[in-house]
Amino acid sequence: MSEHRTKVAIVGASGYSGEELVRLLLQHPHVDLASVTSRQYAGQTLAQVFPRFAHHPPARTIRFCEPKVDLLARQAQVVFLALPHGVAAEFAVPLLQQGCQVIDLSADFRLKDPAIYKEFYGHDHPAPDLLARAVYGLPEIYRASIRGSLLVASPGCYPTGILVPLIPLLRARLVQPRGIIANSLSGVSGAGRKAEPAYLFCECHESVRAYGVPKHRHLSEIEEQLSLVAGTGVILQFTPHLVPVNRGILTTLYLEPVSPVSGPGGVSAVADPIAACYQAAYGEEPFVRLLEGKALPDTKNVVGTNVVELAWRLDPRTGRLIVISAEDNLVKGASGQAVQAMNIMRGYPETAGLL
Amino acid sequence: MSEHRTKVAIVGASGYSGEELVRLLLQHPHVDLASVTSRQYAGQTLAQVFPRFAHHPPARTIRFCEPKVDLLARQAQVVFLALPHGVAAEFAVPLLQQGCQVIDLSADFRLKDPAIYKEFYGHDHPAPDLLARAVYGLPEIYRASIRGSLLVASPGCYPTGILVPLIPLLRARLVQPRGIIANSLSGVSGAGRKAEPAYLFCECHESVRAYGVPKHRHLSEIEEQLSLVAGTGVILQFTPHLVPVNRGILTTLYLEPVSPVSGPGGVSAVADPIAACYQAAYGEEPFVRLLEGKALPDTKNVVGTNVVELAWRLDPRTGRLIVISAEDNLVKGASGQAVQAMNIMRGYPETAGLL
Amino acid sequence: MSEHRTKVAIVGASGYSGEELVRLLLQHPHVDLASVTSRQYAGQTLAQVFPRFAHHPPARTIRFCEPKVDLLARQAQVVFLALPHGVAAEFAVPLLQQGCQVIDLSADFRLKDPAIYKEFYGHDHPAPDLLARAVYGLPEIYRASIRGSLLVASPGCYPTGILVPLIPLLRARLVQPRGIIANSLSGVSGAGRKAEPAYLFCECHESVRAYGVPKHRHLSEIEEQLSLVAGTGVILQFTPHLVPVNRGILTTLYLEPVSPVSGPGGVSAVADPIAACYQAAYGEEPFVRLLEGKALPDTKNVVGTNVVELAWRLDPRTGRLIVISAEDNLVKGASGQAVQAMNIMRGYPETAGLL
Amino acid sequence: MSEHRTKVAIVGASGYSGEELVRLLLQHPHVDLASVTSRQYAGQTLAQVFPRFAHHPPARTIRFCEPKVDLLARQAQVVFLALPHGVAAEFAVPLLQQGCQVIDLSADFRLKDPAIYKEFYGHDHPAPDLLARAVYGLPEIYRASIRGSLLVASPGCYPTGILVPLIPLLRARLVQPRGIIANSLSGVSGAGRKAEPAYLFCECHESVRAYGVPKHRHLSEIEEQLSLVAGTGVILQFTPHLVPVNRGILTTLYLEPVSPVSGPGGVSAVADPIAACYQAAYGEEPFVRLLEGKALPDTKNVVGTNVVELAWRLDPRTGRLIVISAEDNLVKGASGQAVQAMNIMRGYPETAGLL
Questions:
Q1: Average of pLDDT values for D63-75?
Q2: One domain, residues A100 and A177
Q3: Is the model's pLDDT at D44 over the cut of 50?
Q4: B290 belongs to a structural domain
Q5: pTM value?
């Protein structure tokens, strides 16, 4: 089943996530990049807009075009949407009708509840009927559903770094669903390629700052996912910070173990129920790395890869469990995860194009 | 009293804190830098070792010398110790005996309890008799004691960014002394000028990582100070992270209000007991900046200054109080605070040389 | 004469140069900052727009206002113009008429020849009659003229780092006026606070690139100044590059000595005519640092200061003279130099507020 | 011929070049990484030392071992030497005797003349007999010789960025062989993973500086190669600078055209002999990118790739030709180029593992 090739399109390929999709799909062994759209760059080749890809021969012939549903549906079997929320749904609906598989990197299909969408995004959901059909594209959790799905809502960058470490612990009832704190540090590419003064080099370099305190939009999708797993409404304390790196998110989670846990963190899978839980959940996952010994996650070890790094420590002085995750916000936090979902949907090896 | 001049010496002026002391003292209006010591640089002028100071005429004549107590005591009325812990005490004892005032930037005199020193630093305290005489050099809290003191233990960089926001809230019984979490992000100069691979440019640039989890040495001094204020043993959750900036510490504190607090954070000093508390504690402090409106602390706004920035938000969804502080780890977190203490000890305007 | 105080205004205080002027003038011992203008920020205090200055008490009361000539002329004896070229002249003319001294940081009055202005800036000079009255504000070269002047054209950032090393060598006929190459590396603040995609953090961080090849606007002012000194038309090869630092310009000059020079560079002022020339020109200058021994300029040693660092090497293999300069583009390359000129114009010690 | 697999070893895999070789060889479609050596890390797996590779299954089983020639020769058909100069030759000699193909990333076999080696490296060449057998591993120039060679001396990082743009112009007699200036800017990884204070984060971040002026070791290999092509002794002016990026070298070349060239740079391959020359030399090269229109090289467009970007401008005011190149110092400047050479030696598609 794995040697058939898939024609794919990227709608909205001019932002950082779209550019990263281009990078990954140009080097994917089973994919032909059939079309990339951008109103801003229509008519130019990929190589002209993104010189860094020019040594890939297809980048010298593929031209950005205006996004037109009929054309996209003829050219591509899978369409990636790298568009602002609200706009993505406008493309997803007709593309699905014309038989495409859609992988949406926006927030439009990540929530099950349109009321929560309205609360966090400020407008009615543009296609509420589709919410039930969309699968939340976190392969480590929803692999089976992704396999047969036509519409995948690829998770946000912060949610990925929070849900991957939390879901197994909540499922196993090892930590309390209340009182969870997620303190996240993100590179500047997370803000997108927006020409706003706040993201100018001189405003970010030698700057460390929190933002969006206390109610960031990503909370909605994180809390919905955690609540599904915990079987109870989970309310999260989430503080994003901006740090001067291009890529990478480091999240430090503060958790309350359900019962006192005796073993030292990260040492013995036998004595340590946290380690056992993570080993059972992720021991065979190609893109989750459980750190051993004294190692702690470092964004530089995941940048450019589709990997989430995890480490954990029980603090005997406070009784808390500290879990730390690192990911590349543009790969596992966006485009790499979308490609991973595509691999599953199309029956390819899950790591194809991602190692 | 303020127009007398003071002769000062810096012992151990080759590290980042020592270099920052040189910067501040060269431009101080009431101070003559009489002596700087460094075994490594003995014989060279300040201008040769630190070209950035060469346009200050004294930097072209002052030479680093070997640290000798008798000579220091003859040359200087105030001696700053920028030495490793353990070594600092060896100088403090004889310098005090010879009548110098001593401001120590190491950890040697920050703790009252020598047993805690041993627990965290791994060896017996070298001069336990002096602990009772030393004053913890946080002017916003201990100004009166600093004024008459002969030995000031200047606070650590992380402790300053944690104690300044926490002490007024604990004193006013506005937050619980239990369950406090301090999540701190530090620039690389906090690691000192040590030639270790972990602090090479390529290992830090494009890297974000936690370290020292879960028991950092600075915990001892933070907890001792908080416990004094709270009247009960405070155990802190503290996670330091390394981020790729030269200078600056941003700390995000997660706190439990004692009673539900209704007002919005940072808006009205009347309706908001947190704002009222901070206004009472710091409204007149020259080096504490209470941010208003939507502003949040940003290290780039404090780097190079002796200021701590504070902002706070009540999260109505979780009931928690989030307080964020920013400081320059080498100024308010080290050398600037030491100069502030000296200004108090010598009867100068507290902001002299620091604006 | 030096204890009189001067009231100053800054027109256009919202860009990086304007902000740096604010920093320097707030801490200047003989100056009262009477007025700052910015259409964008009118009504807000300095402390609100630039939190980093909020610990200076005047920053909490001075409010940005609309730029109005009559008001400025009543409030200030010296007006600094930190405006785009073309706009600056519109303010300079009436301010001079109303008796203000004007220090212009734009390009409007740097050139003597209005034809060259038109060639490089694309429009007629807005006030050609004033060109003869304006003094080029490079104190190390034109100190005497600055002293009595009413209109100072403060040099550009690149020109400062090129003219300071070149003028003494050309005056002394030690290097050929033909074939000069200036290869400059600038921090991103040189591009101003413009919200353009090219200056976003992610587009500059981990990026090194040339730009404006081969005819940058600053060439006009550099070549005019060099030609004046050389007594012949000097045509310069100038290549600016953008490197990921906030501040700093490093310029490497490639020069042809007039006669073969035998001595080693930078070692002996007796044997080395280059060293002798620089020593004679700058040995007593407070803001030019002649590096000795093996030291080479480094932007980190001048950032935040008004200093230009210089070093030179004769290459016996090629016969060329290499001269390297470093400066802070916002201080010696803009606002610090403007304050230095003001100190001269007002009879203050030249280093006042700049050490 | 291309489906046979090759067993390779890396001797000295703990530095930045060695680590980059690991990255490239782990993802190479025709290679099995049989052995990696490092005295420092012997006994640890690749995944333990370099967590970033841990998601590649072989990285979890391959262990660093002590470098032993007999063992290497049994395990590998091709051995990459990523060792200091002088040490590399000690391994190359016996490995060649035992039938291995050797690709040396040090300077040991780059020069033809052992006298020049001694002049620049300060000691006798350890294996002068081998110099005649070694091929300089710049595929764009010496592809045919590399194909049949047993010993490839992979070029240095600076030489690659200088030779690629210069050799075609010198060969075509379009530029003078005298008076060439190469002004290069390098990221900090070029200094290697050496724990020296000069390369600490805080000493490099916000720093721009020249070094090694005027006689850098790489001059020897650059000049020897240029002289071979020009048919006359070429003496180069070369100034390396350190800029705060992890990776990337940008070189700006200042050249004298042989005859006045009329056409505008980089526009028309017909009217412009420079463009025609580059088109002929590199139009079909997969790893040389000739920029068109207004585009100029930018290290961020080559980092992580094996590409050299080139652009050129004729300056009508000075008559000079400016050529600018960008490369990743660790890929095209070191390990990628070595893999490219291996692909040629082993009959693989030249881009295998490098796209």
A1: 96
A2: no
A3: yes
A4: yes
A5: 0.96
